[in-house]
């Protein structure tokens, strides 16, 4: 009986270690690109990137390839977000919205089933908001 418990313990330990490795590995090897910005400091952009990486860990069966900030692309998507998206409803100020873009791979499981198996999602946008310049970024929406 004692041997069975010990074997079960080691099996569970292996599963936990392996799972945490996969969970962490999803965002460890990501290429990050940041273009010069007149709106946000490099620290603000890096904090937004960190927030997206944390959120991406919930994308099962997906591997983040790269993530980037382009002020031109961010401003274009932010404009639509403010006019037609959640920004028109939630009262956020435009200076407290940042959009990042990313590419990621989807494994044979199709992620959570909503992606095409064995595919790459390109130019996936992440819209982040904050209440003020001193507040933390929060992912408000994502997709195309």
Describe, in plain words, how this protein is organized in 3D:
The chain is an alpha+beta fold. The protein is 42% helix and 27% strand. The chain has helices at residues 2-28, 42-56, 71-84, 87-90; strands spanning 31-34, 62-69, 97-106, 119-129, 138-143. Strands 1-2-3-4-5 form a five-stranded mixed β-sheet. The protein starts with a helix and ends with a strand. The model is unreliable at 15-24 (pLDDT under 50).
Query: In angstroms, what separates the terminal alpha carbons?
Result: 54 Å
N-to-C SSE string, H for helix and E for strand: HEHEHHEEE
User: Quick one: biggest sheet?
Assistant: 5 strands, mixed
Q: Count up the helices.
A: 4
Into which percent range does the helicity of residues fall? 40-55%
The overall pLDDT average reads: 88
Anisotropy-based shape: globular
- Counted beta strands: 5
Alpha-carbon Rg, integer = 19 Å
Strand content: 25-35%
Side by side, the strands of the main sheet go: 1-2-3-4-5
Structural class, by secondary structure, is alpha+beta
Low-confidence stretches: 15-24
């Amino acid at each position: 009986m004692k041997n069975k418990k010990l074997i079960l313990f080691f099996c569970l330990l292996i599963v936990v270690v392996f799972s945490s490795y996969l969970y962490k590995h999803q965002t460890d090897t990501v290429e990050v690109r940041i273009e010069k910005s007149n709106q946000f400091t490099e620290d603000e952009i890096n904090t937004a990137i960190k927030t997206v990486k944390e959120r991406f860990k919930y994308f099962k069966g997906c591997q983040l390839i790269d993530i980037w900030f382009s002020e031109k692309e961010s401003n274009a998507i932010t404009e639509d977000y403010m006019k037609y998206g959640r920004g028109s409803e939630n009262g956020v100020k435009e200076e407290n919205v940042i959009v990042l873009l990313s590419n990621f791979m989807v494994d044979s499981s199709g992620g959570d089933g909503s992606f095409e198996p064995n595919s790459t999602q390109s130019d996936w946008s992440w819209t982040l908001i904050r209440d003020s310049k001193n507040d933390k970024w929060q992912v408000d929406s994502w997709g195309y």
